[in-house]
Amino acid sequence: MPELPEVEHVTRGIKPFVKGQKIEEVIFSDKVIEGKDKGKETIIKGLALDTFKRYTEGYTIYDIERRSKYIVFYIENNSEQRILISHLGMAGGFFVVDKLEDINVPNYRKHWHVIFKLNNDKLLVYSDIRRFGEIRNVASFDAYPSFLEIAPEPFDKEALSHYMAWFDKRLYQNKPIKQMILDHRVISGCGNIYACEALFRAGINPARKSKELNHQEKEMLFYYVREVLEAGIKYGGASISDYRHADGSTGTMQMHLNVYKQKTCKVCGNDIETQVIATRNSHFCPTCQK
User: Fold this and answer.
1) Of the listed 178, 201, 218, 280, which one is catalytic?
2) What does the pLDDT look like over 46-66, one tens digit per residue?
């Protein structure tokens, strides 16, 4: 699943081509249309397809940003403003091309689901191999309450105090620390890969209960989460399976991972072990992480 660094690079890749452009037409794939006809919320969430088109076509994208693992498009038509909120799910991606055939990754070219035709003759294409992603069109963030619950960006000044305050809540005190930092209400944008890596750098076993961490360990873990997210951005994200940049290129963060999907620990040489925590496969070194 694309995490904060991967979504950051997708956002950076498409922004120069879409900001300031008018959406002239929205085209849906047969799979999206069939899904909606069957009452499923396939890709386009919360609105009927014709309603989505009505609130999107003719609107201009006046800004775009990443928020946690979401890409947010701010659109306007005369005096009316709306927001497109997209989550890439497990294997979604945006591409900016002149024509569909220009998407250079076959699976993404085949599994396109939404095309935004722009007035600069470019196509903003949302492709999703597994169809777990989503695009919403809302009048304001109030229409998507869970979005408002997202923690501050981990690079923001208030992020640390926000994170530390969660240790005083009962919700996670008796649950694994790995589960806690995966919650975007606690730390925004930290998914499975970067949680595993941060916990390794901090020397903390992912299964330890949150209440067992001392103050220094809590703070240290936060700083390592931020550090690995910054590294992920530096190296263009981790292209371990399906993730691609907006131009189809791959990131190289996978070359800098210490425990995630690794066989042996790069520090002590012992075997990396795995354990399912909060339905996610956790990778850790039982020797280096206590």
Assistant:
1) 280
2) 999 999 999 999 999 999 999
- Name, in order, each residue with C-beta under 8 angstroms of 101's C-beta and a sequence gap of 6 or more: 109
**Nearest C-alpha neighbor of 185 from the set 173, 205, 174, 171:** 171
**Residue of 2, 5, 154, 176 marked active site:** 2
Structural contact between residues 183 and 212, judged by C-beta atoms closer than 8 angstroms: no
> What tens digit of pLDDT does each residue of 66-107 get?
999 999 999 999 989 999 999 999 999 999 999 999 999 999
Gyration radius of the chain over CA positions = 20
Pick the CATH number of 159-284 from 3.40.50.2000, 1.10.8.50, 2.60.120.10, 1.10.4080.10: 1.10.8.50
Is the separation of the CB atoms in 72 and 85 below 8 Å?
A: yes
Residue 223 in tokens: 């700083």
Catalytic site includes residue 197: no
- In this structure, the dihedral spanned by the alpha carbons of residues 166, 167, 171 and 172, taken in order and rounded to 10 degrees, is 120
Report in angstroms the alpha-carbon separations of 94 from 7, 91, 270, 276, 289.
10, 11, 39, 31, 37
5 given a catalytic annotation: no
Specify the pTM: 0.95
For residue 280, indicate whether it is catalytic: yes
User: Is 53 among the residues known to form the active site?
Assistant: no
3-state secondary structure of 125: strand
For the domain made up of 4-148, the CATH class stated in words is: alpha beta
